[in-house]
Amino acid sequence: MTIWDDRILEYIEQEESGSPSELEKSGYLKISKSQISRRLRKLAERGLLNHLGNGVYVITDEGKAYLRGEYNAETEAYINESAGESPSASPEEVNGS
Asked: Of the candidates 63, 51, 70, 77, which has an alpha carbon nearest to the alpha carbon of residue 8?
């Protein structure tokens, strides 16, 4: 993950979708359109973005969790799973009640 990946995710979360052209025109990123396209594909491969077609991407639940610090993109796992918790588990399930 790069600093640009974080910025791309932030932009798409805020705008609800994004394409290489939109990201380039926004001025939010200081990298080329081809670099933006490459990063978007990588983020989609990691499950942080969903490609809708025609170059348009939306953020996934995992992408939102990553921005909140709840998802590790390198291991592709929720942070609390390593502690034996499921991201959708209720407190009763976690405590065994």
From this structure: 63
